# Entry
Amino acid sequence: MRQLRVLALVNEDLVPPETMEGKSDKEIDEWKTEYDVITTLREMGHQVEVLGLSDDLTPIRESIRRRKPHVAFNLLEEFHGVVTYDQAIVSYLELMRQPYTGCNPRGMLISKDKALSKKIFSFHRIPSPRFTVFPLGRKVVRPKKLHFPIFVKSVIDDASLGISQASVVYDDRELAERVTFVHEHTLADALAEEYVDGRELYVGIVGNDRLQTLPIWELHFTKSEVPLIATRKVKWDRNYQEKLGVKTELAQGLAPEIEKQVTRICRRVYKALDLSGYARMDLRMGQDGKVYVLEANANPNLAFGEDFAESAEKAGLSYEDLLSKIIGLGMRYRAPWKN
# Structure
């Protein structure tokens, strides 16, 4: 790939330092994705300007007009502290006629709303656990069709915010308590879906129209028998990861027909939610072998050594190749202004 002017958009609190030297693991975990992407792009010869953002669009406009970047590498996960506002930044980039990496605004908006996504799954007959939504401030009344155990989470928040082992409930009292917890701690509606006991699978997809499905990845707890749930601690707490023996790796022992089914389902999800760039699908395979889609994650974690990059490497894409592919897809995406 030729040398490009790249505008890296990051949260102002996650602008990485020039080096990791002298930094603790806890500090590095905060901005590792930003550091890995920016450092690698520079090592590849690209001219990278890092722009830390919080609640002002002016710096984006000024940087685009001043430097005329070939592409904006979008690493934002929120704006104004609101996770659903990241799609507004992408919309603004389109208004500025600025090519960018990752998902388009519509795909981000739909995939961020887990309840809306599941309604779309239902329309397209994509297998997903039965669910209901408990609006913020409303009384919790469980529909009779919804059976225990039930998994409760926020409708909009990501990165497993508000998710713990207590998210799986077994009776109406526990359900009411957990819904109240989600309402109070995330200030969002609560999504309650039937809990599928089984294997936790992740599938990365890269592409706009032509899609490349990455090898199926799987989450394991090698030191504990607690329910297999990707809680916030499982994702971000190193000590907790060590305690449970958290491990993600290439899924083993899946029958060829199951692998084909998973791949086919994930491609259908990608298209049904109008995703572009790259995304990761979270699925469950029950004890009976049935596969269910839990959710789709636009613009998943791109840190070197994490699930998405590891899966891409297994598919023959080095980290540099992966970033180049993502940039290429962003520059080729047919945004409305290009018409």
Q: What stands out?
A: The mean pLDDT is 94. The radius of gyration is 20 Å.
